[in-house]
Write a structure and sequence with these properties.
436 residues; SH3 type barrels; 5-stranded antiparallel β-sheet
Length: 436
């Protein structure tokens, strides 16, 4: 290895001496400087104009505005790419005049490396893509700039990794990781854009909207997988063994995952429970559905906790949906009045008072005060009322109606009884000591 490094160093020194002593090399150095200066001037005058023309308004969220912002991300590449283009022109000139252009070709590769470095360092925001840029793209650009790319690719291609009956070289694996990462990143970005567009379709039922989102996600990533297999030259028929293994796995260890997946599709198709509904399951889990995936449904309780419920539970157990599509819910408040009260007046007083609450509905029924029974201490009533929403969390309907009932009875002079007890002594009453 030391001898190889020494040989590379000697070859590099011979090349450097040839460049330093050659008039053609000095002319190429001059062209490199001129190309860089021209690129700086272009960047100085053209970049502000492009930025001014493409910058949308801050409150513009249209697809065109997003596309313009996406194009603006590439402005840092104007300088190195312009230098690369001018250097390529200079290379063609020197090769036509002197028959050689090794120096300017090296400079062209350096400018391309600077563009790759700026792209990987300043423009990639996704963590996975930044990882690929830092540890794959930049080293590959450096190897290309130094003229070592053929040597690197040859070494990678000659290193074969056996995997049972299959084998692949490191060059193919590197291509697979890079191409697969880019394709699936683009698929994830496309899925995010389609999700935002579908969520804005308020005319669609929530369940239908969720189903469309999931269908788009499956279609996008399915297409990404097929494109990746086609680019890498993998025949789909060769995946038959993998499909059989997956089938065996589903048969033995993945029944629950498959069951939850199918249950998620059924939930989205039927729309009996969707995002925003408040549900209660047989197992006691209760909360608002904040997210539905193909495997689980996430409920958020009013105290901020998230409950992850497998989709299968929504199919195989009893589910109470309190707010399907914002439907109204009925609640009641019980109270008692004294036996001295004219109970015929109580329903009108309470119903009129409760109807003034802004959240109480008149459909499907207006407030209804009913006589429930004759208790030990007073006459028992209950007022029923309908509201949109659940009486929990930020809604305190029952508590507010109790205040209204209390104030209405007080204003009407109606007594709310408290328990009375009659104590009977049999026999002589005991003498009680007198207190001074």
């Amino acid at each position: 290895m030391i001898e190889q490094l020494q040989q590379y160093a000697m070859d590099g020194w011979d090349i450097a001496k040839a460049w330093l002593l050659s008039p053609a090399a000095w002319s190429q150095f001059g062209l490199l400087v001129a190309a860089y200066v021209a690129a700086v001037l272009v960047n100085k005058h053209v970049t502000p104009q492009i930025e001014r023309l493409l910058t949308p308004k801050d409150d513009d969220t249209s697809i065109i505005a997003k596309g313009r912002r996406f194009v603006l991300m590439f402005l840092p590449l104007v300088l190195p790419l312009a230098a690369y283009a001018f250097t390529a022109i200079g290379e063609s000139v020197t090769r036509s005049l002197f028959g050689s252009g090794a120096v300017i070709a090296f400079g062209k590769r350096v400018f391309l490396f600077l563009a790759i470095r700026a792209f990987a360092r300043d423009m990639l925001s996704d963590p996975f893509l930044r990882f690929l840029g830092r540890y794959v793209l930049i080293p590959a650009g450096a190897a290309y700039a130094l003229g070592l790319w053929p040597f690197v690719t040859e070494k990678l291609e000659s290193t074969v990794v056996p995997l049972g009956n299959l084998s692949f070289d490191l060059l193919w694996l590197s291509k697979f990781i890079v191409v697969g990462g880019v394709i699936f990143w683009f698929g994830r970005w496309s899925n995010e854009q389609s999700t935002q567009i579908l969520k804005q379709q308020e005319d669609m039922r929530p369940a239908t909207r969720q189903l469309a989102i999931k269908a788009a996600e499956i279609a996008i990533f399915g297409a990404a997988f097929l494109v990746l297999m086609n680019i890498m030259g993998v025949s789909l028929t060769s995946l038959a063994v993998l499909g059989g293994a997956v089938g065996v796995g589903i048969g033995f260890g993945l029944q629950q995952i498959a069951s939850n997946f199918i249950s998620g599709i059924i939930l989205l198709l039927e729309g009996q429970a969707t995002v925003g509904d408040y549900v209660e399951l047989d197992g006691g889990e209760a909360g608002t559905i904040v997210r539905m995936t193909m495997r689980v449904t996430i409920l958020e309780t009013f105290d901020g906790r998230w409950i992850v419920v497998p989709n299968e539970h929504f199919i195989t157990t009893r589910v109470v949906n309190y707010s399907d599509q914002g439907s109204a819910n009925r609640y009641e408040v019980e109270f008692s009045v004294s036996y001295d009260t004219d109970i015929n007046k109580v329903p009108d007083i309470i119903e009129a008072a409760v109807a003034k609450h802004p959240a109480v509905l008149t459909e499907p029924d207006a407030p209804d005060c009913e006589l429930r029974g004759f208790g030990d201490s007073g006459v028992d009533f209950a007022v029923e009322f309908w509201v949109n929403g659940i009486d929990d969390g930020r809604n305190k309907y029952t508590s507010q109606i109790r205040f209204i009932v209390w104030n209405a009875l007080k204003d009407a002079g109606i007594e709310i009884p408290y328990p009375h007890r009659v104590v009977e002594f049999r026999g002589a009453v005991p003498d009680l000591p007198k207190t001074s």
